[in-house]
Write a structure and sequence with these properties.
Homodimer. Part of the ribosomal stalk of the 50S ribosomal subunit. Forms a multimeric L10(L12)X complex, where L10 forms an elongated spine to which 2 to 4 L12 dimers bind in a sequential fashion. Binds GTP-bound translation factors. Helices cover 48% and strands 12% of the residues. It is of the alpha+beta class. Among the domains are: 15-48; 78-144, Ribosomal protein L7/L12, C-terminal domain/Adaptor protein ClpS (Ribosomal Protein L30, Chain: A, 2-Layer Sandwich), CATH 3.30.1390.
């Protein structure tokens, strides 16, 4: 029985490979981690941005409604749009880079200089509200759609 338990522990730990990887990642700087994420995304063709699932429509739904109309379903994904940068563009640029750390200074400046621009696409309500609060605190006008 003891041998079976040892085999299970080795199988779940991957002979220490995962521990070595985690330890190596712990020692990386934030910039190195960002580069690692980009490299993994390119290598495996994946994206860290969550994809919105298409909403399923009921099979029996028709255009004609019978009886009182049902309340509309609550929106689950949002697009954050910078409507106006306001007077303090430097703060807005800083907020844009805080919201999207992979964004360069020039990209953030271009967005702040030419509103309306879409900042985030298909994010959940909490992420959209958080981005809106940061940008409004910097003096920008933001729309959620």
């Amino acid at each position: 029985m003891a041998k079976d338990k040892d085999k299970e522990e080795k199988a779940t730990k991957g002979d220490g490979k995962l521990e070595k990887i985690v330890k190596a990642i712990e020692e990386l700087s934030v910039l190195e981690l960002a580069d690692l994420v980009k490299a993994l995304q390119e290598k495996f063709g994946v994206s860290a941005v969550p994809q919105a699932a298409p909403a399923a429509t009921p099979a029996g739904s028709t255009a004609v409604a019978e009886g009182p109309a049902e309340p509309a379903e609550e929106q689950t994904t949002f697009n954050v749009i910078l409507a106006n940068s306001g007077a303090n563009k430097i703060s807005v640029i800083k907020a844009l880079r805080e919201i999207n750390p992979q964004q360069g200074l020039k990209d953030a400046k271009d967005i702040a200089d030419a509103p309306p621009k879409e900042i985030l696409t298909g994010v959940n309500k909490t992420a959209a509200e958080e981005a809106k609060q940061k940008l409004e605190a910097a003096g920008a006008t933001v729309e959620l759609k």
